[in-house]
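Our consortium's second objective concerns turning raw sequence data into structural hypotheses that experimental partners can test. To show how far this objective has progressed, the report includes one record in full. It was chosen at random from the queue rather than selected for favorable results. The single chain below, 327 residues long, was entered without modification.
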Amino acid sequence: MKKIGILFGKERSFPEAFVERVNAKNEKGITAEFVSIDKVVQARPTDYAVIIDRISQDVPFYRAFLKNAAACGTAVINNPFWWSADEKFFNNVLAEQIGVPVPKTVLLPSKVHPDDTSSESFMNLAFPLDWEGIFEHIGFPAFMKPFAGGGWKNVYKLESQGEFFEKYSETGQLVMMLQEAIDFTAYFRCYCIGQKYVKIMHYEPRNPHHLRYEANHDVSEEMLATIHDYTLKLNLALGYDFNTVEFAIKDGVPYAIDFCNPAPDADVNSVGAENFEWVVETMATYAIERAKEQKDNKNNLSWGGFIKDSVSSSAKKTRTSTAKKKK
């Protein structure tokens, strides 16, 4: 019997519906349940062929547990090693490299020195920074947000340089990024599951939270097709099997605004019944697919194009170097 587990925190509607849906499909030799952990012994496999991770971004113990499970053969969704390495600023860098439009963005050092450091730790960092060059590149209004992390936390909309310095002084040890504000005419949030299934949702981030999915933007089928393709392109490059991508449309260009959401909102009370049904059914189908493919004591993780291309390039250099030495 292959078990599919879901690891979660406070949320209830999605985990409960997911487990119920997988079991209702009556796939021979496959069952689903809430993950149960009574001890974590290094290099010892878990009982799960697949684990859906909804909480390890907030619980380091769970992240370490999932890495151990993945190393021993569990297919963890999403890949805990890549999730640990990824952040929003790098997301933007990769998006530019694969041809997906993103807002202009600049990385900022933390306003307050990290613990156990002093001014002597930053001999390589110019002081002051080229603030005029940064502001000229980004322009105002602008958004300042953490370079990593999820949710609408520590996000500022700034109208001027003076307001920037006022708010920047509040950010403490957070590493921030300053980003061009996109004055959009339409906005979409897209679920992407398994790097192949996409659900485009009309979204209005300026509405109160419970009304954000009650939107209906008038855009062409061509624009929706472009958004669909960009969603797949980003997730194939990043390697996420469960993620959301947000697009802001300005002057006919879909800008990817936020696409590092590996534990995306899937609560029925916020996403609505139709979107909830899609994500429950699609994730159940995909998790069963992964369970059938899973091989004990093998690497069953998904890796994105960025990592796979890097490994391929490194392997090619190694083969070339070895061949030269043999001559």
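The partners drew two points from this record. The radius of gyration is 22 Å. The longest helix spans residues 305-326. Both points have been shared with the crystallography group to help prioritize constructs.
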